[in-house]
Amino acid sequence: MYNITRQQASEILWISTRSVDRYIKSWKIRAEKQWKVVMLNDEDIKNLSWESVKIKQKIIVSPEVENIEKVVSIENNKSNSQWLVRKAEYEKILATFDKMFNGFREEIKEKDNKIQELSIELWRAREQKENSIDLMEYKKVQFLSEEAKKSLSNTLEKEKAEKEKLNKELKYEKTTNRLLIIFIVILFIISWVIFFMNI
Can you count the helices (H) and strands (E) in the chain? Predict the structure, then answer.
């Protein structure tokens, strides 16, 4: 059955969600997607939990064992894969491990949150980089626009100077034309006067 989420698995196994993902990739935990949520196999989680480790190591918890000498002598008679301890000691060890793993789990959660925040910041930085132009390109465009402005202002100044020059020439031509007309009229009058006097 697939009833356990990644977060629940990390809490059961006392590992981070990233470690759970590594287990999924290495096929140590079977997983399937249910409505866009990854659900994990109950049996696989059980096999990886602390209880399965206890069974595999054959930790024999006995309230009857009273002293260490007896534990050592029994352990020597057993195979290396068995470990015989008193119940009180086992509970102390388990409590210590609980504290340690809870502390580690909190640290791992904090680190996971930091990694998530950093990944979000990295994603935002990439988005900004993709949506912004390069500084050299920006300076190049700015330089070209300034050059275009300068050349345009120079062209306008030249056009103004040529316009003023043409206006002066036009005024000079107008005055010379008027003087010529006056001179021609005076000559015409003088010629008429001379003509009438000869008659």
Answer: 7, 5
Strand pairing class (2-5; 37-41): antiparallel
Cα separation, 95 vs 78, in Å, equals: 26
Q: What is the pLDDT of residues 88-112, one digit of tens each?
A: 666 777 777 777 777 788 888 888 8
The pairing of strands 83-86 and 59-62 is parallel
Give strand ranges (E) for 52-193: 59-62, 83-86
In sign, the C-alpha dihedral spanning 58, 59, 61, 66 is positive
Dump pLDDT digits (tens) for 8-43: 888 888 788 888 888 888 888 888 888 888 888 888
Q: Where are the domains of the chain?
A: 1-57
Q: Which one, of 82, 92, 91, lies nearest residue 74 by Cα? A: 82
For residue 115, give the H/E element and its range.
Answer: helix 87-131
Residue 61 near residue 90, CB atoms below 8 Å: yes
Q: Beta partners for 37? A: 34
CA of residue 149 relative to chain centroid, distance: 37
Which of 2.30.40.10, 3.40.30.10, 3.40.50.720, 1.10.1660.10 is the CATH number of 1-57? 1.10.1660.10
